[in-house]
What we know:
The complex is a heterodimer of chains A (485) and B (324). Chain A is built from 18 helices and 15 strands. Chain A has helices spanning 2-22, 73-89, 102-114, 127-131, 141-147, 156-161, 184-190, 214-224, 255-260, 279-293, 301-305, 370-381, 385-392, 402-410, 420-426, 441-448, 453-460, 466-483, and strands spanning 59-65, 93-99, 121-126, 163-164, 167-168, 174-176, 178-183, 202-205, 208-211, 226-227, 243-249, 321-327, 340-343, 357-363, 395-396. A six-stranded mixed β-sheet of chain A has the order 2-1-3-14-6-15, with helices on both faces. Chain A has a five-stranded mixed β-sheet with strand order 10-11-12-7-13. Chain A has a two-stranded antiparallel sheet with strand order 4-5. The radius of gyration of chain A is 25 Å and the shape is globular. The model of chain A is unreliable at 1-48 (pLDDT under 50). Chain B is an all-alpha fold and 324 residues long. Chain B has a single domain (83-317), classed as MetI-like (MetI-like fold, Orthogonal Bundle). Chain B is 66% helix and 0% strand. Chain B is built from 13 helices and no strands. Chain B starts with 26 loop residues before the first helix and ends in a 7-residue tail after the last helix.
Amino acid sequence: MHQRLSRPGVLLTAFALLASACGGTTATPSPAAPSQPAESASVAPSPSGPPTVPPGGPVDIRWYCCLGGGEAPEQKTVEDKVVADFNASHPNIHLTFEVVTYDQANGQLTTEIQSGNGPDIVGPVGIGGANAFHGQWLDLKPYIDKTGYDLSGFPSNVVDIYKLDEGQVGIPFAIYPSALFYRKSLFEEAGLAEPPHKYGDMYTLDGQQVEWNYDTARTVAKRLTVDKNNKDASQAGFDPKKIQQWGFEMQRDDLRGMGAYFGPGALASGDGKTVAIPDAWKAAWKYYYTGIWTDHVSMTGPQFESKDINPSDYPFFNGNVAMSENFLWSTYGVGKVDDWDLAAIPSYNGQVTAAFNADTFRILKGSKHPDEAFQVLTYLLGDASGDLLKAYGGFPARTADQAAGITALQSQFKNTVDWQVAVDGIGKADNPNFESYMPAYNESLGLVGSGGKYLTKWGNTAGLDMDAQIQALQTEMQGIWDKAP
Amino acid sequence: MAAVPIQPVIPREGRRRFGRPSLGKSPLARNEARWGLIFLSPWLFGFVAFTFLPIIASLIFSLTNINLAQDQPLRFVGLENFQRMLADPQTWESLAVTFRFAAFNLPIAIVVPFVVALVLNSRYLRGVGIFRTLFFLPYVIPFVAGILAWQGMLNLETGWVNEFLRLLGVQNPPNWLQDTTLIYPSLAFIGLWGIGAGVIVNLAGLKGIPSELYDAARIDGAGWWAVLRNVTLPMMSPVIFYSLILGIVDVLQYFLVPLVLYNGTGEPGGSTLFFNLVIYKQAFNFQNFSYGATLAWLLFGITLAITLLVFRTSRRWVYYAGER
């Protein structure tokens, strides 16, 4: 009797839980078409006057941060002010700001979306960070068309980065082209010419004009790698166990990014289901491995991880690395090095590719108020962009704002930097971007992404057969893709 | 003569409708019980809201296909996730990793705090308070910070451990955190950072052993080993049992150290791909809530089974002084 009575209760509870926990999930929301103004609770400012409070009260729009920066207290101060200014000037919308620290942001956004409680706007978020939520982003094209939003102010190749199978999922905001960061004094000390600043220029090595490619960079890097006895890596008697200065550091956050410096590409082949590692990427990975274990121009994994050798995030920040490829966002850490400058990325097979990062704000497909969310989005990319770019240390994607962006960047440093190198790097951006979507995106990142299995293993283990390693990576990733839903 | 089961005699009028016997309490007792429940209600509410309902929800999740990375509509999939789990080699590999580490780490996690407590309880030790504080201090420090400190100390190039070995003349000291043969000792070593609580519990247990028992044993001529074996260990068996249960639950849920040290990649060579890490990665990294919930239920089942087994064996080796 007792059991019979409790069973319906259990079933009811289970049903209620199922309904409440899963019913509202946006795991598979249907693509939201732009709502008609008549259906919308409030509309964009009418041409006849400022927006007014709609009868039902302002529409709530939630802005979620920080999948890729934006959580620092000084950044939050700016973000809070942007929200306050927006709310003051837009009585039809009530914008709220939700900060979740970077290490928790991915998991929490997953939970919010799965439980049907996703935010409206997410950002700033990079291409890779956004691809972790592939299929969840709103196609902005209908809203761009409806409002006549002008995209002509952005470099077209940067706009195209956001054109995916999901649609136009983003509008450029902050961009981070790559460049070669180098220390002038270390080149001078080694009696070497500084690397070229202009793409296509030759390098002067031992009085000869040679192409500025990765082979040349390797030769130069060996002369810039110095041990405790002041011998460089090209000299007999060099002791690789007692290196004090390294010649060259690749950008080692992501194997795909590392590959992109040798040539643009993606891991997904044409059918989107088969792993196909571009040859240029294989060459880049071998270059990285040889640089560590044979040429000794780059730090080993334990050296990179050691807080005594590399107390900052990237070795170049410590001053004991002569050349380092990195994105423009890494200027945040170079302040301690007072003689750094930017140079051209070396070429591979006659082609230069400067791997590219970009951050923007996106709207989730599950947003209940996409019109208002788009209104907020255009405010963040427009009126608020100056303050936000400054707070995030972002370089403006809008061409007209780039001169001011350079001035802002230069104001942070005493040494004069050739920022034109970075601007020229925009034209060398990798397309397809290395962070392009691939099946089982998050699981695949476990192999190639930051702290990923192979990146870590290659940095930690000498004597590996790299062809076999690359084949193992491909096989393992294919296994993950084959299981992907 | 066959044993006749004794039935409780419950007066007919005392039986309730659903067969539950009336407690026959007075109005005063009922009033007290009501107030007791009222005071318990915040905890009960918290338990239901934050423990019981999520448990039920996770069970429901395990029977559905919630996964952000797919385009299929939400649907009931029955035992599909459980079938996938059983066929997934990673399930068994990660369980094997977990059990291998448990076999290595559990004895250390039980024995070391006990031995340290024995030393701290020694009448020959001076400055017990200082040692007690020193052993407990690391426990107060956030464990993640402790892990990062250990990562530095075990670094191949600049770690203090290897610097010390080089001073002793070891030319090529080991790569503690990247060598598959050394990884479990290294992890166990890092785990000792947090033994402070275990030491305190053991010390409290040792302090609770009546001194008369030691006096009697010594009068009978028992030496140190005999006292330990015949007095201390039996009297400490409830504490050891408690430590063992917590240790089993902890080691089966081992997670934080490999996540911080290896970003959950399972390196080196898959030796740190612990089962609980797989659950976390499936649910929160790979956005596959349903499969993550399914794996969590397997871990729950395994933990429950082992715990029950240990409870059953406890009748043979745990001594409760108050028992008749």
